[in-house]
Write a structure and sequence with these properties.
The structure is a homotetramer. Chain A is an alpha/beta fold. Chain A has a single domain (3-156), classed as Flavodoxin domain (Rossmann fold). Chain A has four helices and six strands. The A-C interface holds A 78-79, 81-83, 104, 107-108, 110-122, 125-126, 152, 155-156 and C 78-79, 81-83, 104, 107-108, 110-122, 125-126, 152, 155-156.
């Protein structure tokens, strides 16, 4: 059975909440999903999943260093994530505050792992973005993103 | 006297409105400003100004091709914009819809011209963003951006 | 049968040469491939293919405006490319000259179309890059990229 | 007197070597320069300099997490770097391997701090890039970058 791992870093709880919303979308597609705080995650755990979705607050237009640390450590098995599905999301204080570049930074790292990523032609194109606390728009976007990634994981598995 | 050129492409009028708001901020700093539609602009006109600010709707996460056409044509005097001040802004249909990457795309082109660009530690960090029609937040951000760029132009001239 | 379209813009012939090398890799995978100059391409033709690979010279860190024009025109059928496979490549005068940002710009536009893109864990991670005339390294990277995209198209079709 | 801080992270010594080359260019302009390993740098030290140049190996298309950690910690005095000059450089294993996106990631963080950044119309446009061990091309680019940033620091101070 297909399995997706959602990794997040969260200080205020906003990014964690987005992780939970994305997980709901994934479950609607009958795909297994595990949510983990990045600080409790070993890089080698990435190997066990068909899809990996990473979320971070927007810190200086990039993911939190804790996320980057995990990505740096994942070099130990560089090449082994080739072909897995990736996704990214971010919570941010402001519109135009770096949320898109944070998501793109995570997706770039995934591309360098040889992973497969997918945008969304509707709404938050690169991945879900929350400005402040997740509202109903973010809820809708996040669940739809979870469903979309889950569908792609099932298709490629 | 310092002079700034604002170039925009606009279909709905939202990007044009942002250009006008930025111009107001520039005027508050007693710096000359000219606003031009990109379709009425010759690349060589860029040479006459100390600062160049370019605005575009967000089309597929990048500036409209009319903006890119002007940038491509500016290669005719590559090197001559070295040290001028640059800035960028974008209007967009959606949050997370590509507005930041549109602004960064314009700023990247300016860096390749050897231009000087500046972010804003408050609000729209890379440059002003409007989600839909410019509202009071966008008005505030755009005027502040105009003042900031005008101050930098005066300082560097 | 799976079909891939390679669209390029080329002034010196370097980008065109890369298109041909990528096509060789695609053919090795027994996938149909058509190469078209962007100036002879209608946006609606994108609809007919399972995979779309776009190549451009690096002009100010972004694709040539002719490529962006096609992308802008593709808004007429926004949503219809959802789930297709995308890829990008670029030729450039210099190392560090904007080739990666050119490729990422094309991939971002593809993500906004809801397309699926894939990086490469070996070599040119975001897509093939040629510094000047394609050499044996570029030949190897381009053919491998063609094979990789073709395999993904077959898998997802 | 104007002062510039160069911060680097280096495992193989390539990024450190680039830091030293950039420092040579800065000294040619009679500007004070201090080179520090990021692991020996406190975020508050950034406040003492007119210019800050940050270099990192290319790890998954982004700066090493140690660099990001420093940037994250700099939020403690967010706003206080407004108007300072910034620059970035990267060493990388491969052409097209993420070196440009690493530099742009650092520059984005600097823009969010309200810093002033400048590209180079010749050569490595966003900032110096070394593919592998710094060679004579990298030496030339790095020294020229040091001179350029030093000149801008003197002009803006």
């Amino acid at each position: 059975m297909a399995k997706i791992l959602i990794i997040y870093y969260s200080e205020t709880g906003n990014t964690k909440k987005m992780a939970e919303l994305i997980a709901e979308g994934i479950k609607e597609e009958k795909v297994d999903v595990v949510i983990k705080n990045v600080e409790d995650t070993q890089a080698k755990e990435l190997l066990e999943y068909d899809g990996i979705i990473i979320g971070s607050p927007t810190y200086y237009g990039l993911p939190a260093y804790q996320i980057k640390k995990l990505l740096d450590e994942s070099v130990a098995f560089h090449g082994s994530l080739e072909g897995k599905i990736g996704g990214a999301f971010s919570s941010s204080a402001n519109i135009g505050g770096g949320n898109e570049t944070t998501i793109m930074a995570i997706l770039q790292a995934m591309l360098i792992h040889g992973m497969v990523v997918k945008g969304n032609s509707k709404g938050d194109h690169y991945g879900p973005v929350s400005i402040g606390k997740p509202d109903s728009r973010v809820e809708r976007q996040s669940k739809a993103y979870g469903r979309m990634i889950a569908q792609l994981v099932k298709k490629l598995k």
